[in-house]
Design a protein that fits this description.
Blueprint lengths: L6 E6 L3 H12 L4 E5 L12 E3 H9 L3 H4 L4 E3 L1 E5 L5 E6 L12 E3 L2 H12 L5 E5 L2 E7 L4 E7 L2 E12 L6 H5 L4 E17 L21 E4 L6 E5 L4 E7 L6 H5 L1 H9 L7 E16 L3 E2 L2 E3 L5 E2 L7 H22 L9 H23 L4 H17 L41 H5 L3 E5 L5 E2 L2 E5 L8 H8 L4 E4 L5 E5 L1 H12 L5 E2 L1
Parallel strand pairs: 1-2, 1-11, 2-8, 5-13, 11-18, 20-22
Antiparallel strand pairs: 3-7, 4-7, 5-6, 9-10, 10-11, 12-15, 12-16, 13-14, 14-15, 16-19, 17-18, 20-23, 21-25, 23-24
Helix pairs in contact: 1-4, 1-8, 8-9
Bound molecules: flavin-adenine dinucleotide (FAD).
Length: about 500
């Protein structure tokens, strides 16, 4: 194997996760080869929802202007019980948007993938090889050799690192012998997409909070006769998901008449066209190891999440944002390659927390016993009443990074950092850029690789000042993936960052 690798990174698989990885790495100036076995992106939607953090990553990757026109924001989640009563509301109507974007966004996956591919291939040092099927991997001391088949011939390429974004069946994961931890959830659901020329007809629902619009919510119908989900989409697109009941056959459920019957009940006189219907097994699975030497699993290759909060793909996008800034720091700043060993420590607890919440939600949604469903509904209504005022949105499911490239123990470390909207309408990242950012009360010392701002000079209606005050902090240092590295004095933060990255940094007063 050549000692000097041909590329910084080889990405295997160009679904949404591989494509965003290529955009982020390309923007950071790394050379990338992307190997994708199919001739074009998958033509049908799977994911439909993503959250504000993904919008911020699209800002970081420089693709927000491409993707935004094909997206719509909505107002959160509503779960309704067997008798049509509201049992859980995770809505965002009337709430502040601390991260600069609405919490919930809907999109059409083939459009998103097309935009990401167009953006990544605009970088001259990003090479996309379609029709290239990964076959083998061989790790050397300084590089990884990836073998792939294309045009009936075997080819090989070397890279400093490999990111396997090759989906749930991940041939790379299998080649590495990495097994999955089964988090005890497997339910069959029928997924139906339709283009709909009018509003969905909901049955009477009691207890819908004031201001909430059913057409703008993800509605989870926890009806033991047929648990179902109805979610909005961009434009005229709508998604339904119906649980298969015991003994129901996948092929019979996908038959056009059956699909028309199930979906038609929600669209009495509204013209609609069914785009597709397919059955899926919703799983909760996490790889035991996310890294083998220079090879990293990301996206569905590393984990699969039941889609009840629309987080499966979001996890994957967070994965590659985590890897991309670390790889760029090693390549450009001379950071210690060992920072990549924090990848699983940072990402695995996060993924497990959300899968845990999705599995717990899935268990109560999928309740088929009418008596138990009635007990569930009563318990959830009582719980909601007891928690009145402590409003929870899906954002609250995301835990802080506890261990990794963070100044553990400092207030706010590992949290996602806010993104205030500025007086001129821009968002904070548009002003600062996407790198390491130090926000301080007063002038901050200059340090290489860090953008510093005195919060009193930022026209953000005091949001940064309030954030610091709430944590009793003089300054905060934010990572390129928008997680808080830590809080403290500017100098202590600069020194702690240098130590965490294995850098020697000169600071000027
Ligand atoms: C019904 C359903 C609803 C969902 N809803 C949501 C949602 O609302 N929000 C959300 O965040 N997530 C959702 N998800 C999950 C989301 O769809 C996935 O997490 C996401 O598509 C995974 O992206 P990926 O890039 O990791 O993998 P994939 O999209 O599967 O891409 C993997 C790529 O690798 C390629 N590949 C495979 N083998 C090879 C090989 N040997 N060589 C080269 N290339 C290879 C494949 O061709 C493919 O292009 C949903 C999933 C389902 C099934």
């Amino acid at each position: 194997m050549a000692s000097s690798p041909e590329f910084d990174v080889a990405i295997i698989g160009c679904g949404p996760v591989g494509a965003l990885a290529a955009c982020l790495l390309g923007k950071a100036g790394l050379s990338v080869i992307v190997l994708e076995k199919e001739p074009s992106h998958y033509p049908l939607p799977r994911a439909v929802h993503l959250d504000h953090e993904m919008m911020r990553l699209f800002q970081s990757a420089g693709v927000i202007d491409r993707v935004l026109p094909d997206m719509v924001d909505t107002d959160g989640h509503l779960h309704i019980g067997a008798a049509g009563q509201t049992i859980r509301y995770m809505g965002t109507v009337g709430l502040a948007r601390p991260f600069g974007w609405s919490n919930d966004w809907f999109f059409y996956q083939p459009e998103l993938e097309a935009h990401l591919r167009a953006a990544m291939t605009a970088y001259p040092q990003v090479v996309l090889k379609l029709g290239a099927t990964f076959t083998a991997i061989d790790q050397g001391t300084d590089a990884v050799q990836v073998t792939y088949a294309r045009d009936d011939q075997d080819h090989a390429v070397t890279a400093r690192w490999v990111i396997a974004c090759d989906g749930s069946r991940s041939p790379v994961r299998k080649a590495l012998g990495i097994t999955l931890d089964d988090l005890d959830f497997e339910e069959p659901w029928l997924v139906v997409d339709a283009e709909v020329e009018g509003p969905v007809s909901f049955p009477p629902i009691s207890g819908v909070p004031a201001g909430a619009d059913l057409q703008r919510l993800s509605v989870m119908v926890c009806d033991p006769r047929r648990p179902a989900t109805v979610v909005p989409g961009r434009g005229n697109h709508r998604r339904w998901e119906f649980m298969l009941l015991p003994g129901e056959d996948d092929a019979a459920m996908m038959a056009p008449d059956k699909v028309r019957e199930l979906v038609g009940a929600w669209m009495r006189d509204v013209p609609h066209t069914i785009v597709r219907a397919a059955t899926y097994r919703f799983h909760g699975l996490v790889a035991h190891e996310w890294q083998a030497g220079r090879v990293f699993l990301a996206g569905d290759a590393a984990h699969q999440t039941p889609p009840f909060f629309g987080q499966g793909m979001c996890h994957g996008l967070r994965d590659v944002a985590n890897l991309a800034w670390k790889m760029a720091a090693i390549a450009h700043e001379g950071a210690d390659p060992a920072i990549l060993d924090t990848y699983q420590d940072e990402r695995d607890p996060h993924v497990r927390a959300v899968i845990g919440a999705a599995v717990a939600t899935g268990h109560y949604i999928c309740e088929l016993d009418p008596a138990k469903a009635a007990e569930r509904d009563a318990a959830m209504i009582a719980r909601a009443a007891a928690q009145a005022g402590a409003h929870q949105t899906a954002t609250d499911l995301i835990p802080a990074i506890g261990k990794g490239v963070v100044m553990a123990g400092s207030a706010g470390a590992g949290e996602r950092f806010i993104q205030p909207v500025l007086g001129d309408g821009r968002k904070l990242d548009d002003m600062t850029g996407q790198g390491w950012r130090l926000f301080a009360q007063g002038a901050a010392p200059v340090a290489e690789g860090i953008i510093a701002d005195d919060v009193s000079t930022v026209d953000d209606h005091g949001a940064l000042t309030q954030w610091l005050a709430a944590r009793g902090a003089e300054a905060v240092l934010v990572r390129p993936d928008h997680y808080v590295f830590g809080t403290g004095t500017p100098r202590a933060l600069i020194e702690a960052r240098a130590a965490a990255l294995g850098l020697i940094v000169e600071t000027a007063a």
